[in-house]
Amino acid sequence: MQLAHSVPALRQRIHDAVKERSDIASQSLRDQWQRLVLRPLSRLHELGSEPGLYVVVVDALDECDNDDNVQVIVRLLAEARSLEKVRLRVFLTSRPVMSIRDGFRRITDAEHKDFVLHDISPPIVDHDIKLFLETELQAVGQRWRPHAG
After folding, report:
1. HSE of 56 in the Cβ direction (CA atoms, 13 Å)?
2. pLDDT tens for residues 73-126?
């Protein structure tokens, strides 16, 4: 799990949760979210770690096969606000499909901020794409530049 890799202090807590429930992958999404994400993060301060800001990235939620699961996932992600000692932000990408829109309609505006790419002015988008391409092409150039010597 990427969370355990990215936040080493959580590794043991997540390992313990999996050991306690070896069938965790077959449990409900709510149970998995509680045991593998919220509970370990809520106890992070017990491990002497400084409370911080963590970001969970959910990419392409619209590719989820089950519309009911999509709505459950959106509600569970909103529960991140229940963490008191840790700030957890969720960055979610998706096409604007109806099941996801419905899921967000059921949570308050205070719990989420919509950011629609089509509403961004084209010059800003063009600048961001140019900056990304320049940076990535420079990195490729550095990797493939013959060693001097």
Report:
1. 23
2. 998 998 888 888 888 888 888 888 888 888 888 887 767 777 777 788 889 989
In sequence order, the β-bridge partners of residue 124 are none
3-state helix, strand, coil in the chain (%, to 5): 65, 10, 30
> Do 24 and 18 touch, CB atoms closer than 8 A?
yes
| H or E stretch covering 129 | helix 122-144
36-88: per-residue pLDDT in tens?
A: 999 998 888 776 766 678 888 999 999 988 888 888 999 899 888 888 888 88
**Rg, Å, the chain Cα set:** 19
Of 92, 75, 62, 66, the C-alpha closest to 34 is: 75
Q: What sections of 43-106 are H helices per DSSP?
A: 67-78, 98-105
* Domain ranges for the chain: 2-144
| Residues, the chain | 149
**At residue 121, what are phi and psi to the nearest 5 degrees?**
-65, 140
Q: Confidence class of residue 148 from pLDDT cuts 50, 70 and 90?
A: low
